[in-house]
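Q: Structure for this?
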Amino acid sequence: MEMMSMNRKKMWGGKGWILVMMLMSLSLGTVVVESQLAENFYSSTCPNLEDIVLQSVKTKLSQTAPLTIPIPATLRLFFHDCFVEGCDGSILIASPNMDAEKDAEDNLSLAGDGFDTVIQAKAAVESQCPGVVSCADILAIAARDVVVLAGGPWFNVELGRKDGVISSSDRVPGNLPKPTDDWNTLKLLFAKNNLTTTELVALSGAHTVGFSHCSRFSGRLYSNPTDPSLDPDYAQQLKQECPPNPESDQVVVKLDPTTPDAFDNAYYRNLVAGKGLLTSDQELFSEPSTQDTVTGFANGGSEFFAAFGSAMRSLGRTGVKTGNQGEVRRDCTAFNSALN
Ligand code: HEM
Ligand SMILES: *[C@@H]1O[C@H](CO)[C@@H](O)[C@H](O)[C@H]1NC(C)=O
Ligand SMILES: *[C@@H]1O[C@H](CO)[C@@H](O)[C@H](O)[C@H]1NC(C)=O
């Protein structure tokens, strides 16, 4: 008893409290750092992280070559992950009951190759830095890598996300934009995720790669009259690709009819020409307040690239969990609690 109070006196008396204060402010400093993302988050715990992910993404692409399906699939997966529960890997969870986030009707047929890309990259990362890097961060890096590999811009990815512990199909409706959404609906949904209208326009440029099922836009073709914002020749071509029968539900059409595999600014030139595939695409040009932005991106590939990189970083901050707000999943498709 006496010893203890002696020790306590030693600890708190004299100059001890200065040390305690210093330690406290140090740990406060750590808390502040942990609540933010940082490009060098894994520089000491997994220094080769970005290399490992890039090599793995390249391997995945070589396995599916010459098809480039994993590129749009991975990019879109990142977007859907971020807009539901934040960028926390919740989209990757597989539920035996088919009630996880990815099972929602709004999952809009996310291609399995996007999931595979992340799962393979996670395996490669785990083999070198076990238990350190979140699936949310691996998805964020892979989404950047597929953009670069398709000819798009390099941008630094902020890291330090934790994986979430909730993944539910109930959380999806209302949080993802619909292809039939008008300008106001899109604007509000992106604002809810702290994204500006310029970022909305820039991120939509992701539709320079990948495909859409006919059902997502056929309403524009077979309304009476045909959607007047569609270029008539393009509308005619789409009607041939997507005849008004149930079989065309399985048909997919290129989102960018001009350079479908290249990550470039052709998407914006399409919009100017009335060749936006989805209503949500064409709205960006029909809307007076963003028409100049679209035209600017159509005329300037480097402006689009800079805006896209910056907007992807903003998207990557959406609802992130850091510190003890989440976990580092061992298996991207299951919560750690489900593995024990
Ligand atoms: C602005 C609101 C948006 C809407 C309404 C929208 C809607 C859609 C729809 C309906 C499809 C076709 C899905 C299918 O039928 O298979 C699609 C595909 C795609 N979306 Fe979006 N999207 C939006 C924004 C974004 C953003 C911000 C990104 C990424 C940054 C993105 C990336 C993609 C990609 C890459 C594809 C092609 C997927 C593939 O081929 O596997 N989209 N989107
Ligand atoms: C998307 O959801 C539907 C049910 O709405 C499901 O049949 C399909 O397998 C899901 N897709 C993926 C990739 O999970
Ligand atoms: C938007 O920003 C505010 C203020 O920084 C933040 O509290 C909120 O969590 C952010 N929302 C999302 C979805 O990231």
